[in-house]
Structures are given as C-alpha cells and as structure tokens.
Amino acid sequence: MYKLAFFVPESHLETVKAAVFATGAGKIGNYDHCCWQIKGQGQFRALEGSQPFLGQQGQIETVEEYRVELVCHDELIREAVAAMKLAHPYDEPAYDVFPLADI
C-alpha cells in the first residue's frame, strides 16, 4: 500500500479527486472515495519556461490550496499519480508518494 498526498487549488479539488478515485485509489475495506483533506497556503515562484496556472513568472505567489491524502494499492499507484497529473491545472503539481508498512 501507498499513501498519495497532493496539493490542489480549491477550483480543481473535486475534479482531481474524482480522477484519482476513478483509478480505484482511496479504497479502505468496504469503503471507497476515502481521503483526508485540509486547506492551507502554498507558495511558489514561476521561473522562465514555466506555464503558471496562477500568478506570473518571476513573482512570488501564495495561493490557498488543499492537501489531499489517500491510500492506494501497489498495482494502482502509477495510474493514480498519472490521473492526478492529467486532471491537475498546474504544469508541475506538488505531490508525495509514501510506502506504507503492513504492521
């Protein structure tokens, strides 16, 4: 099992979650579409060659985003990450993939 965590602006929160859930990620036992999310503030500066969804190149920007965490079975993690990237509005979405110990 893995935990997938990603950051997404509120405008695309449900769209990106739906894309990831469609892969089968977010299933725990007899429940699906399981996740945890919290609103926070992200910061970035778009460099030359970027195509920022928000803000402008060369300027530090802050944006309200959600951090979404969900579990994903081994055989689905690559598909879940690919779906998240495809549905995400950012050209370089921030995300983490953590292997989970089976204790």
TrEMBL record:
Question: What is the protein's given name?
Answer: NGG1p interacting factor NIF3
